[in-house]
Structures are given as structure tokens and as C-alpha cells.
Specification:
homodimer; Tetracycline Repressor, domain 2; about 210 residues; about 70% helix
């Protein structure tokens, strides 16, 4: 399995200024959070004139933050569809998804994990517009994962809870993995998600049970 | 099940100045992160003179941050022991643990979740002393949870992976829950952890299978 594509780093130097500002913001927010990222750093990274930020985002950093969250969220949401193609084995797809995330952590020195989790924790109690943007993204990921699992044969009554626990396992294992500088939590959470999906598809398949019980 | 105790808020106005500074830091870091918390706000919350922070923490905010992470981590680590008492049913204990976390989120308007996750995501790529403090805490929680699960009868070969996935599920569900302002992710992650622990204790107990197969 190749590394998971890292869709929040497609910085294109020739892109229009507004787009470059969003791309740079996404990259900086993911690595160092929203609070610790200054507008000066954003425009410098985007090779944009300082005034252009307030020209394109009259609401300033908070408006830019909300747009960046939605932009990153949509980009990462596409990953779910890329892994869970209709007809794909959802257990294998889940293993590949988490293995790709672990590989990306290794390749980026544990910097690139979720594009919005840091912001979500920083702002949930302090900025309602940013919290709402994060909530929209998480809702869309839950719906997308649930839909993908349903397409792949998981019973409809189980898809939402499995999607939520898959995403919770991914997000939480990123927190542990970045601090511990180890992919073990991500790979462990991936195996747990695979087991839960396998059990939902075929509740009679017992790991380690005598074959007559399978 | 009563609400989970919230051990990082035992601010004691009569405590020595140094202790009050750490307690106030813990409270502020948990709600708004490390980066967004200024030293002026910390000393104001602690009712401490400004100079006392650098008197007690010559290394400034980073030294205070590392000590606060370890202090909060030790306090929360005690919770694991409180829920998973020797002889307790680990499946029931896990349900109570997550239910308590959900209740605390509700009671604190989704502000009080993990005391160090926000810092861990903010600083893992920018401050090695703070990342190391977070890693020490997560390691101690993993070891503590694994030990508690072993005491409660979970096979030793499974305790580490179950402890990691339990903590990953908790941390990730906090990210989702705070943004979504819903306890659903926490309760869902709790049920998934319960199922995984139950299956590790008794691989033959199939949910929903005909009783003759149990």
C-alpha cells in the first residue's frame, strides 16, 4: 500500500493569490494549530502581499480559518471515497487507510496528521464560527464514511456507529502518535476498526474459535 | 454512575503560590490550549504576583507547561485506577468510564475533556520538552490502563493493544464531541471499547448469535 496522499499540501505557486493563502493556512494550521499561526506568517508562506489577506477575507483570520477548515475538510473527505470504492473489501480498505496514515506520519516526521483536529480542540470553547466549521467537516466525514461502509456491504443499522468509532480511533491515535513519535497507536486503532467492521459484516466469524463455529 | 470527577479543577485558593500557578495553568491549557494562554492570564487566574511565575519557573512558560502536563497527567492517571478496581468487571468499568467522560462534557458545556490533548497537538512539532512531557503522560496512561485490564482478567497478550485503542477512542471522540457539541462520539467509542474488551475476555461470546453458539 502506497502512502496516503497528503492532499493538504498541494501548494501551487502559480495558483491565484486567494487560493495560495488558503493552501498556506491549511499547511500551517495542520502543523502548529490556528492560535499559534500569525497572519504575517500566512502571507509570507503564500508569497502574497499582506493587504491581500484582508482584501480576500474582510473578516480577517477567523474568516480565513473557517474557509480553510472547510477546504481542508473537503479535500480529506475525498480520501474516504478513494479508499472505500464501491465493491472494495471494507476490512482491507480500512487496513490500507490506517497504514497510509501511519506512513504519512513517518514521512513527515509526525507533523502531518488531521488537518483540523488541532484547531477543533483549540477553538471549540472560544470561537463559534470556527467550531461550526469543524463540526460541519466532522459531520461530512461521518456521513461519508457511513455511506462508504454501506456501499461496501456493512449492514445499514451499524454504519453510523462504525464510522464514528473509525474516525474517533483515527483522530485519537493521531494525538498519541504525534506525542509518542510512534505509529503503533495508528496501526493498533486500524486493527481495532478492521475487527469491528468484520464483526458487523459477519457476526458469526469468531477469531480464534474452532472452525466449526465459523 | 455519577459524573467522572474532574480532577484538574481542584483549585484551592489557599494553596501555596507555586501550586496555584500550576492549577490555573492546567485549567487554562485544557480549555484553550497552551499557545493561546498567556502568562499574564495564568498569574491573574492564580491570584499570584507576575514575578512569582519566573521565580518558581525560571524556564518560563515552557518549563511551567511541562510541569503542568505532568501534574495533570498524574491526576488523570489516577482516574484509571479508580474505575478499574481489582475485581471490577472491566466491561462495566469501561462503560462507566466513558459515561462519566460524556457527563463531564455535558456539565462543562463541552469544555473539559482531556487535559493535555490540545497541547500535544499544538506542540508535538514545535517544542521537544513539551512533546516529551506529553509522551511520558500518554505512556503512563497506556501502562496504567493495560495493568488495570490485566488485573481485571483480560489476557496479558491483549492488554497493551486494548489500552491503546481505548485511549485512542477516548481522545478522538473528545475531538469530535467538542466540535459537534454531542456526547454521541464518546458513548459510541465507549461501546466499541466495551465490545473489544468483552471479546478479548471471552472470544466465544458472539453478540446476537444463537445461544447454543455462546
Amino acid at each position: 500500500m502506497a502512502a496516503m496522499p497528503t492532499p493538504a499540501t498541494p501548494r501551487t505557486p502559480t495558483a491565484p493569490t486567494r487560493e495560495r493563502i488558503v493552501q498556506s493556512s491549511a499547511e500551517l494550521f495542520r502543523r502548529q494549530g490556528y492560535v499559534g499561526t500569525g497572519v504575517k506568517q500566512i502571507v509570507a508562506e503564500a508569497s502574497a502581499p499582506f493587504g491581500s489577506l484582508y482584501h480576500f477575507f474582510p473578516g480577517g483570520k477567523e474568516q480565513l480559518g473557517a474557509e480553510t477548515i472547510r477546504w481542508s475538510g473537503a479535500l480529506y473527505g475525498q480520501l474516504i471515497g478513494a479508499f472505500y470504492e464501491p465493491g472494495a473489501d471494507p476490512v482491507a480498505a480500512t487496513g490500507a487507510f490506517f497504514a497510509g496514515a501511519a506512513q504519512t506520519l513517518l514521512e513527515t516526521d509526525y507533523a502531518d496528521a488531521c488537518p483540523i483536529a488541532t484547531i477543533a480542540l483549540e477553538v471549540s470553547s472560544s470561537s463559534e464560527p470556527l467550531r461550526e466549521a469543524c463540526a460541519e467537516v466532522f459531520d461530512s466525514w461521518i456521513d461519508g464514511a457511513a455511506h462508504a461502509l454501506a456501499e461496501a456491504g456493512v449492514p445499514a443499522t451499524r454504519t453510523r456507529e462504525l464510522a464514528i468509532s473509525l474516525l474517533a480511533g483515527l483522530e485519537g491515535s493521531f494525538v498519541l502518535a504525534r506525542a509518542l513519535r510512534s505509529t503503533e497507536p495508528v496501526l493498533t486503532a486500524g486493527r481495532r476498526a478492521q475487527e469491528a467492521i468484520a464483526a458487523a459484516i459477519d457476526p458469526g466469524a469468531i477469531r480464534g474459535a474452532p472452525s466449526r463455529l465459523r
